[in-house]
Specification:
Blueprint: H1 2-16, H2 27-61, H3 70-79, E1 83-86, H4 93-106, E2 108-109, H5 121-126, E3 128-129, H6 135-156, H7 164-176, H8 180-202, H9 210-221, H10 223-226, H11 233-260, H12 268-277, E4 291-299, E5 304-313, H13 315-349, H14 351-368, H15 382-411, H16 413-429
GO molecular function, one term: gap junction channel activity
Family: Belongs to the pannexin family.
Protein name: Innexin
């Protein structure tokens, strides 16, 4: 009972302190670096436990002091061995253990039951299956590859001065606090931080001479490195990170092909679907064989004797399910990431889309505060509409709108509308001498 209370308390703590409200990426990014990474680490733990924990506990089974410990025996039965071989009755227990250890280390080879065992050693060597020992390491490597773009993004996005961690904390406060004054202070802090970041980036000294003439050309090719002052550093960097996520998904397919030994020019999942559609039993295709053969030599004084034993790769039952699921999971992640990249490209590279986003939130903020200056439910006057376009394109610019979009996607429209209202009010004070029409747009 005490253990259950401690477990649920830990889970609640993890839920509260999770990074789900971190406003520096979207769901497709978290699907790559967070959910895919956790999934791969779980698979790594399962395979590692099957391979190494079961073998270690099997050794403990033969220790006299633990031979009567029912808990150890139960765990041994639960985990089992990754490989077990059928040996002749003349083998002793030590010989059987040696054969299984040797076959696990030196690989086995697959021959269908309806085919004869090859006599040539070279042909047996060509049929060898040598991936199962490396599965935990490959899965852990894949988890790291899914997380690398996120590391790169968080190493580079701070150069604009936008502190996404601080924005996450303030957004959480603004969402959870009921007092209007405390909530208003959190919103004001978020608006001030966004305003200071985009203002400082926009006030960098301009280059002169030949650098000023060369800069527009460099900006087109290396905009994510040289366009902080132009307000599009974050936007372009984020799109490049999206491309890295896509490149990682594509690389994962080739990694699985190379690791599993799929026929050249054919993806593992496509081969699987082809087998299923053609009516063949894909479980007996030889990709994850359950029953394999193993050769080992025993040195004697007179000569070396070769022994061939038949082994059961129990671990392949897990490997098969994991890699089949993983392949289709990568397809899903790649599809959602590609759609997200297209959506973000359209949002950030089209000026009209950026302006419409800002104007919509200004109207939302005006409507929630009881109307927009006599304009009937949050509408903008014509003069204000022109000023709003200037506010979006010249003041916020691409990076400011990008930060607000991420905030809306993670913290919600209410918090984002409050921040936009603060920024909009501060911007209008600088243009208080503008004359507005009475027309509503």
């Amino acid at each position: 009972m005490v253990m259950d209370i401690g477990l649920f308390g830990t889970l609640r703590k993890l839920k509260v302190t999770s990074s789900s409200l971190r406003v520096d990426d979207d769901f497709s990014d978290r699907l790559n670096h967070h959910y895919s990474g956790i999934l791969l680490l779980i698979f790594t733990f399962i395979i590692s436990a099957k391979q190494y924990v079961g073998k270690a506990l099997l050794v403990l089974e033969h220790v006299n002091i633990l031979s009567k410990n029912q808990i150890i025996i139960y765990i041994i039965t639960l985990t089992g061995q990754p490989l077990q071989c059928w040996v002749p009755a003349t083998y002793t227990k030590a010989m059987e253990q040696y054969a299984e250890n040797y076959c696990w280390v030196q690989n086995t080879y697959y021959v269908p039951f309806d085919s004869g065992v090859p006599k040539e050693h070279s042909e047996r060597r060509d049929r060898k299956i040598g991936y199962y020992q490396w599965v935990p390491f490959v899965l852990a490597c894949e988890a790291l590859l899914f997380y690398l773009p996120c590391i790169l993004w968080r190493l580079l996005n701070w150069q604009t001065g936008v502190n996404f961690r601080a924005l996450s904390r303030m957004a959480l406060e603004a969402q959870s606090l009921a007092q209007a004054e405390v909530r208003a202070r959190a919103v004001h802090s978020m608006a001030s931080h966004v305003h200071d970041s985009i203002t400082l980036c926009g006030s960098r000294p301009k280059n002169s001479g030949c650098c000023r003439r060369i800069r527009p050309c460099l900006q087109q090719a290396l905009c994510f490195l040289c366009s902080k002052r132009h307000g599009c550093y974050l936007s372009y960097l984020y799109l490049i990170i999206k491309l890295l996520y896509l490149a990682n998904c594509a690389g994962q397919f080739f990694l699985l092909n190379a690791f599993l030994g799929t026929r050249q020019g054919e993806l593992f999942g496509i081969e699987l679907l082809t087998s299923m559609l053609s009516g063949r039993n894909w479980e007996e295709s030889g990709r994850f064989p359950r029953v394999t053969l193993c050769d080992f030599w025993v040195r004697t004084i007179a000569d070396n004797h070769r022994h061939t034993v038949q082994c059961v790769l129990v671990i392949n039952i897990f490997n098969e399910k994991i890699f089949v699921f993983l392949w289709f999971w990568i397809v899903l992640v790649a599809t959602l990431t590609g759609l997200s990249f297209i959506a973000w490209t359209a949002r950030q590279l089209v000026p009209a889309s950026r302006t419409r986003f800002v104007v919509d939130f200004i109207k939302l903020a005006n409507g929630s505060s009881g109307g927009g200056g006599g304009g009937g439910g949050g509408g903008l006057r014509r003069g204000e509409a022109r000023l709003a376009r200037q506010f979006a394109e010249e003041h916020l610019r691409s990076d400011g709108v990008f930060v607000l979009r991420l905030m809306a996607a993670n913290a919600g429209d209410v918090v984002t509308a409050s921040v936009v209202k603060e920024l909009w009010s501060a911007f209008k004070k600088r243009y208080s001498n503008c004359v507005y029409d009475s027309d509503i747009v």
